[in-house]
Amino acid sequence: MRKIGTGIVAIAATTVLLAGCSGGSTPSESGNAAEGSGGSLVVWTDANRAPAIEAAAKAFEEETGTKIELVQKNFEDIRNDFINQVPTGEGPDITVGAHDFLGSFVSAGVVDTIDLGDKADQIEKVAVDAFTYDGQLYGFPYALETIALVQNTDLVGEEAPSSFDDMIARAQAAGAERPFVINTAGQKGDAYTMYGFQTSFGAPVFVQDASGSYTNEVGMGGAGGEEFATWLGAHGEAGSGEISTTIDYDTNNELFAAGTAAYTVQGPWAIETLTANGVNVKVNPIPSAGGETAAPFVGVQGFYISSESANKLLAQEFLTTYLATDDAQRALYEADPRLPAWKTLAAEVSSDPIVAGFLASAANGVPQPSIPEMGSVWDLWNAAQVQIIKGGDPVSTWNTMVTDVQAAIG
């Protein structure tokens, strides 16, 4: 399972206290319940984003008299620390976090709902869906992470292929030694990276309801799943060979960077490696293999409000009025560049064609499920894909996996 936000430097937890003014300070101009409250909030953040949040916190203090205490945390500690400390009263009022924390937060009863009001219209829908659970919104999303098609423009130009088959044909016509490489994590399998192709056959891992929330209904069974499995086998090691269990993450990137492969599927975190040898690239949405739109997983970062906060209205006011602005979102982007979920900022940074390509891919994507049942899926799903790529019977292998997943989630 891919973890969003890995690579953030671990630091010892420290506390930065922003000196606040008293309750008699100038009231907020927003005109809601937080005006002149003189309360206090504790916000957990990592070191990268602390300066951007601090700037919004200072404005909040000056206008409302609310004292903001920023506690810097190692990002990878936040999920467990929040679950363990909120019930004791030692947790924060607000924490930064990944959307795939949500299932465990809801199950533990440590997170509160949030009303974004008209600010929801300024946020990409996939980001709002990611923080939605059982029809309720539980956070303020602000940044995205996804994968896309990266192509060697020296070999195949900048035009996006119209389909997977068109992609392979373009690469072969260009004389590429390898038309396409994709990470399978070697013998482990990487259903995360393969998911865009799977969804193009209409075979989602779980079914989403009308609110965007994931249900526990497995969506990989039936004709769509069988068609994807058949396609995977046809392009695996016993078929045309474009998909191979000899390709792990590093090998994938090395083959592309060497100019050996015309296309790959990767995230923005790999662009520097992919272009290290001077390869020129264009980023486009993942092409469809099954006729439907290829919808890769999208990870989302945002902010949660503690269910035990004594100042929930203040917390919501800070998020929806002081962080939900162009300036605050730009500061967050500059402090820790991630694909923006804030639409006006996304349009602004799309002047960079690489960013624009990943944003276009994210617009086609779906949130990586945050429901607890997802934890029972990855190993079975990855193993089935490896078996099929290596030449196992596609349909029977896939259907066995679906049955095992259904049994595992009860």
TrEMBL record:
Top-level division of the source organism's lineage: Bacteria
Record Pfam families: SBP_bac_8 (PF13416)
Signal peptide range in chain numbering: 1-19
Signal found in the keyword field: yes
Keywords for this protein: Signal, Sugar transport, Transport
InterPro entries per UniProt: Maltose/Cyclodextrin-bd, SBP
Family, per entry: Belongs to the bacterial solute-binding protein 1 family.
Protein name in the entry: Arabinogalactan oligomer/maltooligosaccharide transport system substrate-binding protein
